[in-house]
From TrEMBL:
InterPro entries: 4Fe4S_Fe-S-bd, 4Fe4S_Fe_S_CS. It comes from the Bacteria. Residues 203-236, 286-314 form the 4Fe-4S ferredoxin-type domain. This is 4Fe-4S ferredoxin-type domain-containing protein. It comes from candidate division WWE3 bacterium CG_4_9_14_0_2_um_filter_48_10. Keywords: Iron, Iron-sulfur, Metal-binding. The keyword Cytoplasm does not apply.
Amino acid sequence: MATRVISEKGIFELLKLLKKRYEVFAPQKYKSEVVFAPFDKTSKLLLNYKTTILPPKQFFLPPQEVLFAVKRGGAQEPKAQRSFIIFGLNLKDLAGICQLDEIMEKEPADSFYLKRRKRAILIAISEREVGIPPGGDLILEKIGNLYRAITPSQIGRRITNLPVFKEAVLNKKPEPKTKPTKLEMMLLDSELLAKAVEWSRKNYPQIWEKLEKICLGCGICTYVCPLCYCFEMEDQTSLDQSVCTRCRFWSACTLPGFATVAGGHNFRPTLKERYFNWYYHKFVRAYKEFGQAQCVACGRCQKYCPAGIDIEKVLVEIVTEFQKAHPKRDF
């Protein structure tokens, strides 16, 4: 059966065509890391990479943004940006965006996120078998020297009508998926993870006491996570007091001031409580609200943690102890 395909050289030509209409961001080398950077004719694309420093949430929830400005005479929102394309997403980051969509659409919906999201086109790329697409607009699945087009959306189908795509009958199959990691296997049973993490607070506190001695409370795990969205807001007034802007910027629930309220009371004064809360939100509260953990096993939190904390090892230990305490129960 014929399918739409594109060559590696054709991908560069595709992005040059799309650049005429959209702002295009693609994975590129930055020192020893990979980042999503604006694409131009001099860009050196990376089609096979593990992960970028920051996840693509940065395009929809910027590290800092002006929500609106109040001047004498009324309020004013920032001008809308032009439509843009994020090219070269890996499947884990694509799944993260799809989960983030569900979170931000839940009432009270985040209108600022949703406005940016509606202007975005998502193009993912995979060196291995895709299976069931998590979403997006276009997925390029590598088969031999070509990339097969998978089009979950109408926009993706329109893109594949561009002349850089050709019809072809592929006799080869894509490379099979890699063996899932322990973390990926645990994420298949979100209910077990939720029960184990919630149980650990009172019944296995030594894990959190141990982590409290290691964790620096810096918040990096939150900043690089595709599914963390803690924020703070601040009103900034111009020197002549003619303009007041409301700004939103990234924060982290592991930071000491995050749970501090008026009067100076802190609901989570210890690092142990704050670090547990991070796990609780991702694996317990998320499961109760959305039916799945807010983690896509991208590995960023472990890679960039200055203390070297490995989320997979932490969860394996918690689940193991939980199952020891409940040997005959079926979860």
